[in-house]
Amino acid sequence: MIFKRVGDGRPYPEHGLVTARDWSTVAPRQVRLIDLVTTKVTLNLDNLLAEDSTFYGDLFAHVVQYEGVMYLEDGLHRAVRAALAQRALLHARVLVLDSPEQG
């Protein structure tokens, strides 16, 4: 198993980070693939196979941690590449959102 779960959609509230510049304020760190829940059920093979897939975007995947679950919002192709290379870790920017109950 590569990921904790394959999800479809973003169960967390809107966070306002849209562009790579927005995300650049979140420091990158390593995350385990097995701890991630995807927010997409499909992967575009063009993204997976493109040599320059990060040329115009962020070098790091984008992860949102919400209610203790880590959701892979952007960078599914990076995560699959890491898995194909038999790496268990991925460098990602992790945005931690508190749920309303956690205040």
UniProtKB/TrEMBL annotation:
<dbReference type="Pfam" id="PF23719">
    <property type="entry name" value="VapB"/>
</dbReference>
<protein>
    <submittedName>
        <fullName>Transcription regulator of the Arc/MetJ class</fullName>
    </submittedName>
</protein>
<dbReference type="InterPro" id="IPR014447">
    <property type="entry name" value="VapB-like_prob"/>
</dbReference>
